[in-house]
Design a protein that fits this description.
2 copies of one chain form a homodimer.
Chain A: H1 4-7, E1 11-15, H2 24-34, E2 40-44, E3 50-51, E4 54-55, E5 69-72, H3 79-88, E6 93-96, H4 106-122, E7 125-127, E8 134-136, E9 141-142, E10 152-158, H5 161-174, E11 178-184, H6 193-201, E12 208-213, H7 219-232, E13 235-239, H8 244-254, H9 261-270, E14 274-276, H10 279-291, E15 299-304, H11 307-319, H12 329-338, E16 349-350, H13 360-371, E17 375-381, H14 387-390, H15 396-413, E18 417-420, H16 429-436, E19 441-442, H17 445-463, H18 476-492, H19 500-509, E20 518-520, H20 523-532, E21 537-543, H21 549-552, E22 555-559, H22 562-579, E23 585-592, E24 598-607, E25 611-618, H23 621-624, E26 629-633, H24 638-647, H25 665-681, E27 685-695, E28 700-702, E29 705-709
Parallel strand pairs in A: 1-2, 1-5, 5-6, 6-7, 10-11, 10-12, 12-13, 13-14, 15-16, 15-17, 17-18, 18-19
Antiparallel strand pairs in A: 3-4, 8-9, 8-11, 20-23, 21-22, 21-23, 24-25, 24-27, 25-26, 27-28, 27-29
Helix pairs in contact in A: 3-4, 6-7, 10-17, 11-17, 12-13, 13-15, 15-16, 18-19, 20-22, 24-25
Chain lengths: 712, 712
């Protein structure tokens, strides 16, 4: 169902309308009137007859005409009853302002549940609760007072009203850009992030979507929609709540679980979202994407009128991994002819005072640089806009002409230009002109550079073909019925853990290379199994009550010979019972010793926001100390598994380090796909942990496998 | 010699004085007049009689009175002759504005050399060349036009005029702070960074020193002075020129070698300098340090009037490793009583609308938080200053009262308070009041957080006892004469490499644990030596022409038995000659095989700016792939060697990882000290490379040692 009636209502009722100027029930009506809402406004308050010149209604049901949206400003406990009235009135949606729901603990959580059930039963969509509200600038439907001028191009989804206020203030003070919609997501009780996203993706006026998020309730659905949306228009996102204190803060104000933030960050990026790390970058990144085409290749050129800024810009752009353009011989010669002797004409270009007396020189340089084929984007850093302030008042006029020329060059050539000016706070007219031509101007070198990198990143995203997760299930038909039996068996015994042989059997069913091994239930049987393998064996306890086999010491490696095997069997049993006297023992697993190779770890976990997540790393210090692992939210594509293998820092170890052979990356990739297929195929699975998996030059072997199930 | 006559001149001559308004020779005189320089101004130009109402002189020598400072605005090639005149006139110093010296290549470098020699011979100190100039605000001695108001507290040393302009603009637009001195360092031909630093350290009006540096010519001297200065007043520094493109840019504009930037960064920090990574943070960090006392312990409390800003501030402060305060039960109860139900009273504190109608509530919270013993610093984030804009116009007045109260609390309690306000660009009076009380206000959450971390970092520095480099030279008396002989021998043979036995002998002389080993010059001698050791031996070629022994394959490990040793000897010789037919062979080194242990790498290198640098890391992937090494500029203290060992990421491996024994960190520390002592004792040494050093539970063994010498 489209959210259009909710987002662009023709009629709005305000429940809890008030004549007290400090109350939301007053302000909502006041701002609707002030901003010129193009529709009917119905105050609802049983105690009033008129408010702000409007007739006041006893209840939503008393209103004669149809009502699209209801703004509820009364306390939390009154909300479910009001929603029932909304349902009876065929209201499309309600903005629930009050806090005191999920973010307030247990009783709030059940109140929120009641709210959602009532709303769903009655077909009323809920924005919030615990939200600052929403604004449809297109309809002048503003219940908050985010006054702005100009045609909107940006939409904002935010879990913080303060952040919204900050962005609106920044937009009006420092740019010529305006918004189409603002939605305060609040607790996301009913309408989720991805539904708003769909709505904004389809809105023709919204060119860029800005998101401030602390936690999402359905991250997986969001990622899938984001994947599609970013092909059409950019999404710029800031994630709050990385730290312990930040998570506590997020929890107390939106009831959000801030979630594994490394997973979130990489998942968002992979969906083509521009993730900024810094709240200062959020608006500039969106402004730039709404103003300029993304970079289509080539590198960035830097044009400066002083060395320091050139140096800093080059450093920052390098840190941001933006390629620095190599200028053509022709461009360099032309610059050399135009500029004084001290000028630098290799990128970064420093005019070294060559424009101090004539800012048109900068426009000449801009033209040369933008026309250079190797230049995909140009960054101007320094004083532009301030020549009339710094050097001589009459330079204002050639400076303004230079701005016109630069702006028209950008239009003609379709290449992005971003300008840093330390005179931006002085608001010289030349900079206003640049903004008129959609050339963004910043007073921070770092932010200007970040905006260049955003254009590079989004350009690259658009050039990358979309990949699909591949779930081919080569083994499904054969495997699934058998696999289900294994899980059913564990469930019937009330277990939340597969025994190691069960876990390996499940993997084997799905085509994973598990070493041949069998469970012995007596010393003699163990010896017999061992005799069937060549060479020494590994022996491990099989017990649903012993999760950590090493800790229990119920494990023996490198056992060889009949007597040794029998003795090992007896010792393992003894250790297991010493570790836990009431442990239920299924036997002892006997397997051939794996030949030495490189140990890797593959696993899956459930993320609160994104569901199953796949993890890969190299065993030992790399994972345990350096935390050098890669993550992907499932499902994954073949390409994603290749990237997972390549993006860990210690990936060099797989390529053959210090005379070691190269390791079978293809086999790792296959196993990563298999593991994700298994998690997808059996929703009962909570966690898989293959540790270690030994990787050889050809092939690999899963030495230990642990599979945990969700509680029934 | 003090720079006082240069920095605070009573008389200034401008050579190259001009009536052309776009020329430096005009502007320098104009701004001296405009700013009301408290001394005599002498234009010098043989073609003019009067300029700007002042009498013009044919040359410096024609001026009747004494001249302290000469500003030279004429081209590079004219400068040495003018300096000669300055010397004859007993001028204290000259500002050389022209470029075309070292930064311009070979001919410029020799011109600069000529300039320095002339100046030193004549006792004239040089600022620059290639500088934007200098300003002594105390004397209104301004030859640039950095107009400002208020009493100066900040001094600026900068290798970029643009950066200076940016900082002055920022100071005047966004703060109430002003400067005492500005010095454009330029090419640092004569007066070096550390001399300016000394001058500013002793200036009573300068409270904070700001430095923008791309490269230093005498970094070691600078570090030593900085070490002392930061005990008296803070230094805030930004280093430009980290990247390839940035280094190129720095080279072209100051002729500076941008140097190993990781070394620079950590060396600066260790000297107690506040190193900022971001040009946006440079001024705010300095402003904060000039305004507030450093943190004396405790954690930071965050006070917000909205959840989003609280969350972001908590994240950023955590990233910056600032401890987050735990509030006392008493504070939390008091906050709870004061604030509405939805408020968060654990740090971060979110008033959750509780101040919307009365900003005095914020001042009440500030008081509670600053009075909490666990709170060492308070950060207020959100809307403060904008209540009169956002909520109701008349709130301006209680908001101003709240500002007065907050300001006086800071004065009374001596604890720092920093305020973030998204309304800062609107310049409300309440924020001006905060600044009057020396409470800094920023419109960026990230920058406000960074300023908190700066106070924490500087506070910690002041609490840390200064450590002295310890060069005890236990072995010096005995070692030095013998050591010098080894080096003399190499020098006499024209070698820039010590043979391995020589290098190890030098180490042994200084008390380093080198395994017993001897050089054999025949297969028989090799067998004899090997027989003297228990167990297998390692055998390596000894040749001044073979630097990379492994590559030459002239090395055999684990050799045991007379025949095997003899054969190995012959094979090593064969491999060595196959690798390089004309290699001069001194023999084959025979040493007992080192028992297995953890391999570490210890080395020294010469940094362009800081001289000898000591390096430590764990061998193999840690150093080679993950680049996990620690650095220190020499000389080092015992404490510094401990820190070097602890600060690598893989240090856990030394503590005993996965059942491995803990390694002898004390022995590593001793060897680090020994190596630095050796480098200090023999200035001929260019590079030491001990790789690997095998570390055991007790003790260590140096398996391979390479020592390179400077070319004679």
């Amino acid at each position: 169902m489209s959210l259009n009636r909710v987002m662009n209502p023709d009629s709005v009722a305000v429940v809890g309308a008030s004549r007290n100027e400090t109350k939301r029930g007053y302000k909502a009506i006041k701002t609707l009137l002030d901003e010129g809402f193009e529709g009917s406004i119905y105050p609802v308050n049983p105690k009033e007859e008129f408010l702000l010149g409007l007739r006041c209604y006893k209840s939503v049901l008393d209103i004669e005409g149809p009502v699209d949206l209801v703004v509820i400003t009364t306390p939390a406990n009154t909300v479910p009853a009001i929603i029932e009235e909304c349902a009876a009135k065929n209201v499309a949606g309600a903005v629930v302002v009050a806090g005191g729901f999920r973010e307030a603990g247990e009783s709030g959580t059940s109140l929120e549940q009641e709210l959602v059930e009532t709303a769903r039963a009655g077909g009323v969509r809920i924005i919030g609760p615990n939200t600052s509200g929403m604004v449809s600038f297109k309809k002048h439907m503003d219940i908050i007072g985010f006054h702005q001028q100009g045609k909107g191009e940006l939409a904002l989804l935010s879990q913080s009203g303060n952040m919204a206020l900050a962005l609106f203030t920044e937009a009006s003070v420092k740019s010529r850009k305006a918004f189409t919609y603002y939605i305060g997501i609040g607790n996301e009780a009913d309408i989720r992030f991805h539904e708003y996203l769909d709505f904004l993706a389809n809105d023709p006026d919204t060119r860029v979507i800005i998101i401030y998020v602390e936690g999402m309730r359905d991250g997986r659905e969001f990622l899938q929609r984001a994947n599609k949306t970013t092909r059409i228009k950019p999404i710029v996102l800031l994630k709050g709540g990385r730290s312990v204190a930040g998570t506590r803060s997020a929890g107390s104000h939106t009831g959000a679980l801030a979630g594994m933030s490394e997973v979130a960050r990489s998942a968002f990026k992979r969906a083509g979202i521009i993730v900024v790390e810094n709240s200062d970058e959020l608006f500039p990144a969106a402004e730039t994407l709404a103003s300029l085409p993304p970079m289509k290749g080539g590198g960035v050129a830097i044009l400066a009128d002083g060395g320091g800024h050139a140096t800093i810009a080059a450093d920052v752009l390098t840190d941001l991994r933006v390629p620095i353009a190599t200028l053509s011989e022709k461009t360099r010669r032309a610059l050399q002819e135009m500029l004084p002797g001290g000028a630098a004409v290799a990128n970064p270009v420093d005019v070294a005072g060559g424009a101090d007396g004539d800012p048109e020189v900068l426009a000449d340089c801009v033209q040369l640089l933008l026309e250079d084929e190797g230049v995909g984007c140009l960054l101007v850093v320094g004083l532009f806009g301030g020549y009339g302030i710094r050097f001589a008042e009459e330079l204002r006029f050639p400076e303004e002409d230079a701005a016109h020329r630069m702006g028209k060059l950008v239009r003609r050539l379709g290449k992005p230009l971003i300008v840093h000016s330390l005179y931006s706070p002085a608001k010289p007219h030349a900079l206003e002109l640049l903004r008129y031509y959609n050339v963004p101007v910043y007073d921070s070198v770092e932010i200007a550079c970040r905006c260049v990198s955003v254009l590079a990143e989004y350009g690259l995203h658009l050039q990358t073909k979309p990949t699909r997760p591949e779930f081919t299930f080569h083994w499904e038909e054969a495997a699934l019925p058998e696999g289900k039996k294994i899980l059913a068996q564990a469930a019937s015994e009330g277990r939340e853990l597969l025994l190691e042989p069960e876990a390996k059997e499940l993997l084997r069913l799905h085509g994973a290379p598990v070493t041949a091994e069998r469970v012995a239930t007596s010393p003699e049987e163990a010896a017999e199994i061992a005799a069937g393998f060549n060479g020494p064996v590994a022996m491990k306890i099989v017990s649903q009550d012993i999760l950590h086999k090493s800790e229990s010491r119920a494990i023996k490696l490198n056992v060889e010979g009949e007597q040794a095997v029998k003795q090992a069997y007896r010792r393992i049993l003894k250790s297991a019972l010493a570790y836990r006297a009431d442990a239920r023992i299924s036997g002892v697993l006997v397997s051939p010793m794996a030949s030495p190779g490189l140990e890797v770890i593959i696993g899956t976990k459930i993320d609160d926001q994104f569901g199953p997540v796949l993890m890969f790393g190299i065993g030992g210090i790399m994972v345990e100390i350096l935390n050098d692992v890669s993550f992907r939210v499932l499902p994954v594509s073949k390409k994603a598994t290749r990237e997972m293998i390549d993006e860990i820092k210690s990936t060099t170890l797989l390529n053959g380090f210090r005379g070691q052979p190269a390791r079978d990356k293809k086999a790792i990739g296959r196993l990563l796909l298999t593991v994700s297929e298994i998690v997808e195929a059996y929703p009962q699975i909570k966690e898989i942990d293959l540790n270690p998996v030994i990787v050889y030059h050809r092939g690999l072997g899963i030495v230990d496998a642990r599979i945990l199930l969700h509680p029934a």
